Amino acid sequence: MSDSTGVWAVDTIVVWAAAVAAVAAALALLWAVVRGIRRIVAAVDTIAEDWQGVPARPGVPARPGVMERLDGIEGRAGEIERRVGGIEHELHPNSGASLRDAIDRVDRRTSWLHDDRDQSE
After folding, report:
1. Residue ranges of the domains in the chain?
2. Residues 6+ apart with CB under 8 A from 68
């Protein structure tokens, strides 16, 4: 060491202080890296749990995963499509069995009761 104080005890203390500071800095850097990795792992774990679902445990209900929830949504969407198709069938004239056909029949049968042209004049 070319920069020495000439006092052996002081030079030794300076070297040990530098070593301790270097080790402390390395430990602080390692702690920051490990903490960052733990946060990333926790986030990935949360995403995996949301994707796969979580089984029930005492006091906590099960949470279905994404695929199970999508399957439920598709099932409900199919039921809604079936019901809307039934409603559409009733709203348009077709084979004579729809609600629209029944209303048109009633309108034809009762049109003699009131002429719409009288009201517009």
Report:
1. 1-61, 65-113
2. 53
- Helix, strand, coil share (%) of the chain residues, nearest 5: 75, 5, 20
DSSP symbol at 74: H
Cβ–Cβ under 8 Å, residues 119 and 111? no
CA distance 102 to 109: 11
Per residue in 72-86, pLDDT tens?
999 999 999 999 998
Global confidence as pTM: 0.50
Stretches where the chain sits below pLDDT 70 are 1-2, 115-121
Three-class secondary structure of residue 121 per DSSP: coil
- Long-range (24+ apart) CB contacts under 8 A made by 106-111 are none
DSSP string, 5-52: -S-HHHHHHHHHHHHHHHHHHHHHHHHHHHHHHHHHHHHHHHHHHHHH
